Amino acid sequence: MNTKRTTFDSRLLPYLLVAPQLFITLIFFIWPAAQAVKSSFEREDPFGLATTFVGLAHYGELLQDPNYVDAILRTAVFAVCVTALSMFLGLAFAAAVERLTRTAKVYTTLLVWPYAVAPVVAGILWWFLFNTSTGLMPFFLERLGIHWDHDLNGTDAMILIIIAAAWKQISYNFLFFLAGLQSVPHALMEAAAIDGSGPVKRFFTISLPLLSPTTFFLFIINVNYAMFDTFPIVDATTVGGPAQATTTLVYKVYQDGYVGLNLGSSSAQSVILMLIVMVLTFVQFRFVERRVQY
């Protein structure tokens, strides 16, 4: 069998081709990460003119700080809820659109639009909808006997940022789930239909197991999204309040480092957050991937 292979006349050419990407990665990812690790072991004076090596002091203070421990638990709840809600709705919409014939493209376009919205715009949009003075949602909730006030109630504020963050991510999950459902062999679905299996049974016995690689990929992406990329949403909706009820780990890094100018503690928090995500990713690949059927 004849195969086409690409050959390079110079050994340096492959490295030159990847050099721009490596340069960008080094400048915007590796170098800032290294600086954060370095700063986590130092303490600056109030004027930022001198630094003192303090070792693991910042890490010890963080682990003994009840506010930081609460932020870890709060972030865990937030990440689980955002991941579960966005993936469930993305799969539900994909399953519904996949069964359509004439209007599938129209619904796909409408469902993809939210992904084009910037996170901060998504946060402001949901802030307006749940605004206690002019928002529509508190008005309808009040008719149902539910009093909504995310400015004073920490639970309401957490629900608000979960809804806003999940809404922003549904479109991304929808696209991948729809592509996965469309790649399911029609012969399997037709054979199951001939055997008398209904649409629901065919989905859970054939389509869903074959979506396990897509589900595993989206699970990792959504966890990382909830841990890192939701900062603009929190900042635009609740600003970490009330009483730090919505202060996630990534937002606490901003509050302590940029607002509080405690760069050492903020850098230590960045390192811990990076380690948490790395451990979660390792656990997912080590244990969760075993259940994936390729």
Q: What's this model, at a glance?
A:
This protein has 13 helices and two strands; from the N terminus they run αββαααααααααααα.
Task: Describe the 3D structure.
The structure is a single chain. It contains 13 helices and 2 strands. 70% of the residues lie in helices and 2% in strands. Helix 1 (13-39) crosses helix 13 (263-286), helix 2 packs across helix 13 (263-286) and helix 3 (66-98) crosses helix 10 (212-229). The longest helix has 33 residues, at 66-98. The radius of gyration is 24 Å and the shape is globular. It has 294 residues and is mainly α.
Write the layout of secondary structure elements.
Elements: H1 13-39, E1 42-44, E2 51-53, H2 57-64, H3 66-98, H4 104-112, H5 119-129, H6 136-143, H7 154-182, H8 186-194, H9 199-210, H10 212-229, H11 231-237, H12 249-259, H13 263-286
Antiparallel strand pairs: 1-2
Membrane topology: Multi-pass membrane protein
Subunit structure: The complex is composed of two ATP-binding proteins (UgpC), two transmembrane proteins (UgpA and UgpE) and a solute-binding protein (UgpB).
Main location: membrane
